[in-house]
Amino acid sequence: MMITEVQVEVDHRAGGLAVLSFFGRLNMASASRLKTAIGDAVDAGSAKILIDLAGTSFIDSSGLGTLIAGLKRTRQAGGDLRIARATDQAVAVLCLTNLDRILRPYLSIGAALSDW
Fold first, then answer.
1. Domain ranges of the chain
2. How far is CA 16 from the centre of its chain?
3. Counting Cβ atoms within 10 Å, is residue 79 exposed (0-12), middle (13-18) or buried (19+)?
4. Residue 113's CB: how many other CB atoms inside 10 A?
5. Is the distance from CB of 71 to CB of 102 less than 8 angstroms?
6. Residue whose C-alpha is closest to residue 11's, from 54, 60, 44
7. pLDDT digits over 18-45, tens only?
8. Residue 66 neighbours by CB under 8 Å, 6+ apart
9. Does the model's pTM come out above 0.90?
10. CA triple 44-48-51, angle to 5 deg
11. 64, 73, 77, 116: which one has the fewest Cβ atoms less than 10 Å from its Cβ?
């Protein structure tokens, strides 16, 4: 299934946690939607954000910047931001930029949540 429209689904959970599922290309044209969703979740009391990237077909530098801005925002609120189920392209971009050291990609949602 090819997703042409960008979608962000938010699942607020107990303990100040929100799981954001991003679908589509995370690039300059769509990064603001994810940034807004992260900000809204933090403002709603969810300082722990998990971003599920399984439906993300592509990430560019704008997308990476949004993830880093989200990490900063959650940490300022006393939480953290994690990513899970990143595609091969997303993992490659994270590794090439050494951002995998800051935003370690978890293989599953369960693994990302296990030590929170």
1. 7-113
2. 16
3. buried
4. 17
5. yes
6. 44
7. 999 999 999 999 999 999 999 999 999 9
8. 26, 31, 32, 34, 35, 38
9. yes
10. 100
11. 116
Q: Which top CATH class is 7-113? A: alpha beta
Strand blocks (E) in 60-94? 80-84
DSSP 33-57: HHHHHHHHHHHTT--EEEEEEEEEE
CB-CB contact of 71 with 101 (8 Å): no
Q: How many CB atoms lie within 10 A of CB 69?
A: 16
Nearest one of 45, 47, 1, 49 to 23, comparing CA atoms: 1
Pairing outcome for strands 105-106 and 17-26: unpaired
Q: For 45-104, how does the pLDDT look when each residue is reduced to its tens digit (9 = 90+)?
A: 999 999 999 999 999 999 999 999 999 999 999 999 999 999 999 999 999 999 999 999
**Per the structure block, which two tokens stand in for 11?**
């699942």
DSSP-based three-state secondary structure for 108 = coil
